[in-house]
Specification:
Elements (H helix, E strand, L loop, with lengths): L5 E2 L3 E5 L5 H8 L16 H16 L4 E7 L5 E11 L4 E8 L8 H15 L9 E7 L3 H9 L3 E12 L2 E11 H8 L2
Parallel strand pairs: 5-6
Antiparallel strand pairs: 1-2, 2-3, 3-4, 4-5, 6-8, 7-8
């Protein structure tokens, strides 16, 4: 299957390529962007290149998908989003997203995430039609929690010490969105 391109009012979501190495390095070398991430701040462009290769491989092997978030006006990469993993048999997926700091608070993340949710729930991806999408947040990630709630995700509980990175355990707040609940989110 070809990598799907999604267009929104202000964005184009498409495949990451090696040409995005500098932008991905800029994104993940910002300590504010990776503050709640399970990876350290990038210190070399090789890390960005390796991440792109890893994400391309996940799609090729049908394990997940990660889109570049680009401005429609000039094609500039401003972040990424996608289904980090999917389980076709269970019709579920886990979502993730990030955005360059200069684009925070302008609705770009919500616009991109809503678009990929629509695609996943209608069945336009290699994993087939999704019924449930899950997202995890780390304590203190208020902006991410607001975005999820805006799109109709429901807080389902805390998985205690379910994550371990940067030398410590993290409680993960679990959010879930069911396909039948998503249609109500679009009408807001």
């Amino acid at each position: 299957m070809n990598f799907p391109t999604i267009k929104t009012q202000r964005l184009v979501l498409n495949e990451l390529t090696e040409n995005d190495t500098d932008s991905i390095y800029k994104l993940f070398s910002d300590d504010k962007v990776v503050e709640f991430y399970d990876l350290d701040v990038f210190s070399s462009s090789t890390q960005a290149s390796d991440l792109i290769a890893f994400l391309v491989k996940r799609f090729t092997e049908q394990q997940g998908i990660r889109w570049a978030i680009r401005l429609d006006t000039n094609g500039k990469l401003i972040g990424t989003c996608g289904f980090n993993s999917w389980m076709p048999k269970m019709q579920t997926a886990v979502i993730g997203y990030d955005l360059m700091k200069g684009f925070w608070g302008q609705g770009f993340a919500a616009e991109a995430v809503e678009a990929i949710l629509q695609e996943g729930f209608k069945g336009g991806l290699p994993c087939g039609k999704l019924n449930r999408v899950q997202a995890d947040t780390v304590k203190g990630n208020i902006a991410s929690e607001k975005l999820l709630k805006k799109l109709g995700f429901v807080e389902e509980g805390v998985r205690r010490q379910a994550g371990y990175w940067k030398g410590q355990y993290h409680d993960l707040k679990c959010y879930g969105l069911i396909r039948t609940d998503f249609s109500g989110a679009n009408s807001r």
